[in-house]
Design brief:
With 398 residues, the chain is of the alpha/beta class. It folds into two domains: 2-176 and 378-393, Glycogen Phosphorylase B (Rossmann fold), CATH 3.40.50.2000; 184-374, Glycogen Phosphorylase B (Rossmann fold, 3-Layer(aba) Sandwich). The protein has 16 helices and 14 strands. The chain has helices at residues 22-38, 50-54, 78-95, 106-118, 138-145, 156-159, 184-194, 211-231, 247-257, 272-278, 288-295, 308-317, 325-330, 345-354, 359-374, 380-393; strands spanning 2-8, 11-19, 45-48, 58-62, 99-103, 123-126, 148-151, 166-169, 202-206, 236-241, 265-269, 281-284, 300-304, 337-339. The strands form three sheets. It has a six-stranded mixed sheet, sandwiched between helices. Strands 11-10-9-12-13-14 form a six-stranded parallel sheet, sandwiched between helices. Strand 1 and strand 2 form a beta hairpin. Helix 7 packs across helix 10 (272-278). The longest helix is centred in the middle third of the chain and has 21 residues, at 211-231.
Length: 398
Amino acid sequence: MLWSCQIVNGVMRKVLISAGDASGELHAAVFAKALSAMLPRLKIEGLGGPHMERAGVELLVNQKELAVGGLFEVLRDANRIWAIYKAMRAAINETSPDLLVLVDSPDFNLPLARVAHNLGIPVLYYITPQVWAWRKYRIKKIVNRVDRACVIFPFEKEVFANTGLRVEYVGHPLIERLPCSASSGDREISRQNLGFPSNSLIFSMFPGSRRNEIEYCLPLYLETARCIATACPSASFAIGVADSVEMDDIQREINMQSSDSSLDVKLFHGCTYDLIRASDVALAKPGTITLELALLGTPTVVAAKSHRFTAFALKHLKRIPSLSLPNLVAGELVVPEFLQKEAQPDKIAVALLELIEGPAREDQKASFVKLARSLGKGGASSNAAAVAAEMIDGTARA
């Protein structure tokens, strides 16, 4: 949650922004800077993480408190999530902001949208829920509770066609932060920054930004690493630790799961893009990280497990053939995907090894370049901020 305050004709303007997960927090930080530039003299506070804090946001609640996902997995954290929600709801009621901006995190944010709507507070949704993938019934909730929406994929505007909701395609926020691919120079610099020899064969793993993802994916990834180590004894292994996850928690899980002490896995926190650029190939769970890997040109395999009840529900609720963003955006199989029963360490290891060199690697990298071009030229945060500025003061911003 962010608060932005501006004096306009003697009246204090206030904006409330809610960003509840790691990727949304990144985008909210850039959005907040863009909005502050358009409407100066803003005081910004919020629910977020280190990127928002570095952007000048005073954190009221750390986003780590909401670092849990899934359908059934959240039940263990229900009391804490409910407490944070009540704090956000109270903030809306007590401060009566001129605009509520929601960033992703639909399970947390849609109830907040209802609170604001009932109070007559305008609502902007930046990075709307993926209703085109699953839980289509949310379209009605969004239309009833949100005044304007900013979507990040070209095809998403059609999802809300004929609903009456004003929807703007603003581009994908990752484009403005990442180049289409990493050059060989970037790769060498990143390896130096991380302490890897230039000739290392590096397998990186990105098990997620939520506690439930770490619980279910990390053991699978470590077992896959052991399979790769058998085939490539000289390989180096690294785990990218999300900002919302504690390093000690990852190390504790590694110590619990590792039956082979000879497997050396290095942990890296706060340097995701350096690790992506340095890597020869990566293993990642479904989510924003898969698009980041694609935009930086690192060959990728996607794999994940979840609670069996969550997996069962997803199987019956999802309306798409894949959970991997590169596959969805490209409209074809770009990255191999192994989920639930298919997520077997030996199968995943084979797919990763095939991407070290040869046709599979080159084909995937070529597909990544096409994918990046399809997402436009960037500017998502400033475009979305312009919509917010217009809603606040009625003036369209360039």
